[in-house]
Task: structure prediction
Amino acid sequence: MKIPEKGLEKSEIFEELEAFRTNDIDWRSGTVWGYVYDAGREAEELCHQAYMRYLSLNALDPTIYPSVLKLENALVAMARTHLNGDEEVVGNFTSGGTESIILAVKSARNYARKMHPEIEEPEMVLPLTAHAAFFKAAHYLDVKAVPVPMDEKTYKADVAAMADAITPNTILLVGSAPSYAHGVIDPIPALGELALENDLLLHVDACIGGFLLPYFARLGDDVPPFDLSVPGVSSISMDLHKYAYAAKGASLVLYRDRTLRKHQIFACAGWPGYTVVNNTVQSSKSAGPMAGAWAVLHHFGEEGYLEIARRLREGTRKLVEGIRAIDGLYLLVEPEMTLIPFRSDEINIFHLADAMKERGWYVQVQLAIEGSPENLHLSVNPSNVDRIDDFLEHLNGAVDEVRGTETSELARTVSEAFAEVDPEEISDDDIEGMIAMTGAEAGEVPEDMADINEILNAIPPRLRERLLTAFVNEMFVP
Ligand SMILES: *Cc1c(COP(=O)(O)O)cnc(C)c1O
Result:
């Protein structure tokens, strides 16, 4: 394939773009229980219009586009109020939760370099339930992640165990509000105390909950303190492209004050081009996501968001009751927001996920890891709420269908062969062999995931990582 010799007609271009999408999931249908945060057509169209108006503005340089500076400061100001920060709080707009987290870790690392130059190998202590983005930050920034098992019953951070994990090299503590996998809120006030006692920074990952939880509190839920009002919290991340319904590419990272945020900024005058001074990982970047987010916040306003939160809260409760009523399904933990993990002892949940997919529903698979069994995860978004009865009916049907399904021969063979071996000892060739056994083909997305998930679930996490890396390396081949 090469760039076409002659340009195509507009109609042809769009036909081809649509053709790419034939096998995509229909994200507006309310059948997708993850990745999608959809509050309806009106908000979506408005967000798109605002986004398009700012699409071509380059947020790299606010001296050329003062509008971008105003928009970003306005978004941070609204977030600061929403999260109970005072006038000292500053922050920036980023492309997503992952970038917000990478920046918070980078700021903590560079702050520690200044305050504690004796620390050569910085560490961050985090509950095992912290988002993968912290491990990515560790990987990029050469900060050691020290995951600590969570409380077995509540799935919340075990503060005493985290205290025990602190060493002279620790620079940062982490808590989530809530964690993605289990949807529960870590004890942030206790983590704040721990941070203050040990003169450490504390980042709160409120990527998914920061926007929504304050509305749940207003609706009467007993939401524990998690935001900038908690002493000891030094930074917090909050996504706008989740429960604020902005288009993808919208998150915020906030800091208690400028002293800490300064360490996020990168400046470079050591090359012959324009002077570079970047707040974020990206340099050239569209201002579209910012304008889209600003527009959608002004579209709903507090009243609109509160109303949506009411629907989500009712929907989540109904769903919880419905799942409880299905013989053989159990919730891992009581949801504190809109995230529901459920498991089974009797039914193979990987086949259940595939059976739901055949019925047109996407549910998210979560593999077993120390202290947390394999389970299925639902993130409730507004477009799901009207489909709950429908969903539960299909879930019932799928459970009956899958009941009695055994682990596949293939999954058993592969997992038995690899369950006990040291992941680091396995050669790249063996990894290739494992992939070949699953029947995966280069450049294609696999159809049936149950076997693949069973294999992944049976092997140690480090081996999963190696397998997935090799797998994706095969998938993105033109
Ligand atoms: C979604 C999420 C992230 C990562 O955000 P992205 O926008 O996908 O990069 C981090 N933490 C939590 C708790 C999340 O839910």
Observations:
- Residues 96-98, 131, 133, 176, 180, 205, 207-208, 239, 251 surround pyridoxal-5'-phosphate (CB under 6 Å).
- Residues 124 and 172 are 5 Å apart (CA to CA).
- The radius of gyration is 23 Å.
